[in-house]
Amino acid sequence: MHVEFALGHEVEVAELADGTFTAGGGEGDALHFPGLPKALATLEVRGERLFVTASDSLAVGKSVLPRQVRRLVGPGEVIRLGRGAMVRQVPARQGDAQSTACVLQALCSQEPKVLTGRAASLTCLTGEDQGLTWVLATQETVIGRGDGCAVRVRDRSVSRRHLRLIQLKGRFFAAPVVGTNGLFINGKMVTRSTPLRGGDVLELGLTLLRFDAPGSAPSKAEDATIIVAPEVSEAKRAPLRRPRVPASSRRAPRFELVAVAVGVTCAAFGFAVTLALLG
């Protein structure tokens, strides 16, 4: 893999074979940047894939990478180490510079093809569950790291109940659970139920899942006819309480008002009769 690294205006290109390398200011770092902490970042090369783990917070693309979090880096994405130091994978072809999320389709094409039958499936592309495939044979499939999930992923950045896959009339919809750590489909963040098509990549936490479905994809007009009700995560869920209405603002029932009116009328009539008899 060709990797470009720069400090200020000095740019160099190195060829990294498969393996693990460190970048920082230490003499033993494969990518040496004077003035930076020793082994600031660990780069892992696996074929055409580049992963980075930082010993301290640094930036990858437009986002901050927390310490000790392993992240997939796409061709052309810049790892900013600080003090003008940066590392990036040189795209194999011109125009391949993309964000991590946008390069997922290329990564999928490198994975072994999954033979799909009548049932749809999910295939894990990264992380501890890489290579595992789950068949989606039920109407609703819950995905997360909790014990009760039908598709359970070993990723601490994934919520216990992260999203639901809903099957309606042969179509599949991804419905993120409200209050989770976010869901991206083909690099775009989604906050509501979204129709899925074969080859779509779901990104939850550090886990990438490819959706494979047999048959032709539905049209956009058909997609718009179904809305999946959102689910609220346990962290956001609160018990429903009936609002308390002050006694002064409550309306009296109608029959009570009628009874009061009849009583007042009778009292007035009796008073008038008494005055007539005394007169």
Task: Provide a descriptive summary of the structure in words.
About 14% of the residues have low confidence. 27% of the residues are buried. The chain is elongated and about 120 Å long. 13% of the residues lie in helices and 35% in strands. With 279 residues, the protein is mainly beta. The strands form four sheets. Strands 2-1-11-10-7-8 form a six-stranded antiparallel β-sheet, with no helix packed on it. Strands 13-12-22-21-18-19 form a six-stranded antiparallel β-sheet, covered by helices on one side. It has a five-stranded mixed β-sheet with strand order 4-3-5-6-9, with no helix packed on it.
Task: For the structure shown, list the relevant keywords.
279 residues, mainly beta, six-stranded antiparallel sheet, 13% helix, 35% strand, elongated
Poorly predicted runs are: 94-116, 216-227, 248-252
List SSEs in N-to-C order. Answer: EEEEEEEEEEEHEEEEEEEEEEEHH
Which strand order do you get reading across the main beta sheet? 2-1-11-10-7-8
What is the subunit organization of this protein? single chain
In percent terms, what proportion of residues is strand?
A: 25-35%
SS-derived structural category: mainly beta
Outline the biggest β-sheet: 6 strands, antiparallel
